[in-house]
Amino acid sequence: MLENSSVDIVDICTPTFTHRELDVRALRAGKHVFCEKPMALTLEDARAIDRAAENSWWATSYASFRSI
Questions:
Q1: CA distances (Å), 42 to each of 18, 53, 65, in order?
Q2: Helix (H) or strand (E) holding 19
Q3: End-to-end C-alpha distance for the chain, whole angstroms
Q4: pLDDT of 29-43, one tens digit each?
Q5: Is 17 helix (H, G, I), strand (E, B) or coil?
């Protein structure tokens, strides 16, 4: 899927422990990324995702819901 040029955005809705690898791979493949919460289980993983996003002009968004 990451090699498919007709795919513009990837929704990462997998178990949290997979988010770092999948987010970084998608960003490096030139895809916009929407990732379900939580972004990562560790600060190290969150920073790695953030670095990958900073090194790319692709949009990265994380789902966040708040109960009222």
A1: 12, 17, 20
A2: helix 19-28
A3: 37
A4: 988 888 888 889 999
A5: helix
